[in-house]
């Protein structure tokens, strides 16, 4: 059936155009009933693994693992890859939450914090000597600030013994993060992959595994979804506990379709839409861009300041079945957030901007 | 479309008869795109909460919380409700895994272990003095052994200061566990609720919350899905991180349908089917019951010894599109497991037994 509303919310968001086709295949094949220890499940898991490796250029050495959410992965990274000290680049609500997770489980957590809407200049970053982890957020969903890929790569190059983690929750598979350089990265499927929520994807290299094994000898790395167990199971296209089979299946189908279209094509389309969005709001009366520096503006989540209360803007667009997001946290009323995910077609972006032109 | 295969696997298993109808409603309403902070999501979450409270007679005092899986709940109970010592009634692979989780996170874990296929006599259970948690498994999915509800209630009555947890993963909503007596219980949705996997449901009382808050003052209760945070969010029909919205929605619809049919009716139907299954295999040449004592035989997962290799039995039935489970772990080849969930209609059980009669 045709979808009545168009979602530009920063996730959950508009579903991938072929979502219903893939879902129908899942149902028709009765995959909701198969054992997660069956050959049929392993085949599904292997397909998703292979398609993600192709799409994101994941090295053969790395493991691709599934969890309940990206937030769960924060805790797993902390428990499996750190013992004492962590360092967090904080410039929004999600990078801050990872930092607070580190404090909650008793790590001595350092942060370098920027006001919301600002990104990091590489030269300003001073990594604490004893930090075992450098947490970077490639795309801050709350503020629409991105960190250039080259800066993330440089951080690892200049801190080879520290684990560099990359939050790609709302940007994967768009950014060109070199997964053979960084140690671990993670994302959710309800953002740029255009799927219903309920799965986190965790990519990690052998250095992360070594750390987990070393820490495990001295203390505890937890009991559920430990890295060594997730890793070993993933090598057999299995999971330690019963996973969200439907999400793993759908993700494989979406990734396959993205590979067919070609990642470069997807990136180009996203960038063209982003350019159109930012150019429009730069000039539009009553609105301005939430992120001043062009190189820090997210390609996938546009954050826009609004002089009218965001609730008013959102309500007017909702009348036209166009659903956008409010600002996050303290910026709830002063900002709007517009997802520019792969599932949002260029025509949808035009429809949205035409509505802005008509309404405001 | 009509389903080709009938699943009697002990979960994931046969889907609830109305699964496709409920899924269509989810898709048609575009619930896969809604924000988990929206009023629409809260309404879904509230509906599921209310239907589960009615179905399972959950006291108003208790919280109903959602996680990625039941295994995740094991770790959350250990981290939030225990500090030093735990006690586990172990009589199969899943109760043993909970015990090993406790060891992995550094608890002094005690166990009282029975051979696979045997249950516990209440009088034999000696609870260690300093154990903070008594872990019971109402239904051991690996062995088909159940623990009578009255024994679980008695354990709490005689150990009022200890947290009594009940694994109902593959039996809820069938057993009459009094949730105003025990402290915490949990289940998965891919068993008796007949849904695709990817959601754990955690029920806990205020005593669990008090323990978590007390432990949190002295040490760490973890960072992700802590009980106080899950609890607070659940009171507002919210979740700390983006949940499996589809599963929460489908669970609410299934629970509502179960309430319409009436839990007593469902219990009666399950018991009649169980009686038929056990009577058949008790007399059938080449097969015998995996659980000797009638009071310990699971109502929802029948475990049957087989003289032929289970792989041979499973393959022959598969030819007829009837899918049953192998024995678990060491009993893989010597046992078969047959789910007797709510989604398995009396007609399906007849079809299965007729096939046994024809084939063996």
Automatic annotation (TrEMBL), chains A, B:
Q: Which UniProt keywords apply?
A: Amino-acid biosynthesis, Aminotransferase, Cytoplasm, Pyridoxal phosphate, Pyridoxine biosynthesis, Serine biosynthesis, Transferase
Gene3D superfamilies registered for this protein in UniProt: Aspartate Aminotransferase, domain 1, Type I PLP-dependent aspartate aminotransferase-like (Major domain)
One Pfam family of this chain: Aminotran_5
Look up the record and give one Gene Ontology term from the biological process aspect. glycine biosynthetic process, by transamination of glyoxylate
Which enzyme class, named as a word? transferase
Domain annotation Aminotransferase class V: ranges:
129-352
Instruction: Name any cofactors this protein relies on.
Output: pyridoxal 5'-phosphate
Kindly tell me the pathway this chain contributes to. Answer: Amino-acid biosynthesis; L-serine biosynthesis; L-serine from 3-phospho-D-glycerate: step 2/3
The EC designation for this entry is 2.6.1.52
Q: Name one GO molecular function term.
A: O-phospho-L-serine:2-oxoglutarate aminotransferase activity
Q: Which reaction does it catalyse?
A: 4-(phosphooxy)-L-threonine + 2-oxoglutarate = (R)-3-hydroxy-2-oxo-4-phosphooxybutanoate + L-glutamate; O-phospho-L-serine + 2-oxoglutarate = 3-phosphooxypyruvate + L-glutamate
| Entry similarity comment | Belongs to the class-V pyridoxal-phosphate-dependent aminotransferase family. SerC subfamily.
Name by which UniProt lists this protein: phosphoserine transaminase
Q: What is the lineage of its organism?
A: Bacteria, Pseudomonadati, Bacteroidota, Cytophagia, Cytophagales
């Amino acid at each position: 059936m045709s979808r009545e509303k168009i979602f530009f919310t920063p996730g959950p968001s508009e579903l991938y155009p072929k979502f219903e086709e893939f879902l129908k295949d899942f149902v028709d094949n009765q995959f909701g009933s198969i054992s997660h220890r069956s050959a049929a499940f392993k085949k599904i898991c292997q397909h998703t693994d292979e398609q993600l490796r192709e799409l994101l250029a994941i090295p053969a050495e790395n493991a691709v693992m599934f969890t309940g959410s990206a937030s769960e992965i924060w805790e797993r990274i902390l428990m499996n890859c750190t013992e004492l000290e962590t360092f967090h680049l904080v410039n929004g609500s999600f990078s801050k939450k990872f930092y607070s997770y580190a404090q909650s489980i008793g790590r001595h957590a350092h942060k370098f914090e920027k006001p919301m809407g600002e990104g990091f200049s590489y030269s300003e970053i001073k990594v604490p000597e004893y930090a075992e982890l450098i947490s970077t957020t490639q795309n801050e969903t709350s503020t629409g600030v991105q960190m250039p890929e080259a800066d993330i790569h440089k951080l690892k190059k200049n801190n080879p013994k520290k684990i560099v983690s990359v939050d790609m929750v709302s940007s994967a598979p768009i950014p060109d993060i070199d997964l053979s350089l960084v140690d671990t990265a993670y994302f959710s499927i309800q953002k740029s992959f255009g799927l219903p929520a309920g799965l986190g994807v965790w990519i990690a290299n052998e250095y992360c595994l070594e750390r987990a094994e070393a820490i495990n000898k001295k203390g505890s790395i937890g009991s559920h979804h430990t890295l060594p167990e997730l890793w070993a199971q993933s090598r057999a296209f299995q999971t330690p506990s019963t996973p969200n089979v439907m999400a793993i299946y759908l993700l494989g189908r979406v990734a396959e379709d993205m590979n067919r279209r070609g990642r470069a094509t997807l990136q180009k389309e996203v960038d063209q839409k982003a350019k159109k969005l930012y150019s429009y709001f730069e000039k539009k009366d009553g609105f301005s861009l939430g992120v001043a520096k062009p190189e820090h503006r997210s390609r996938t989540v546009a954050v826009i300041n609004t002089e009218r209360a965001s609730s008013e803007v959102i309500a007017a667009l909702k009348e036209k079945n166009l659903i956008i997001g409010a600002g996050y946290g303290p910026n709830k009323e002063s900002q709007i957030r517009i997802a520019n995910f792969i599932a949002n077609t260029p025509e949808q972006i035009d429809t949205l901007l035409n509505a802005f032109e008509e309404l405001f």
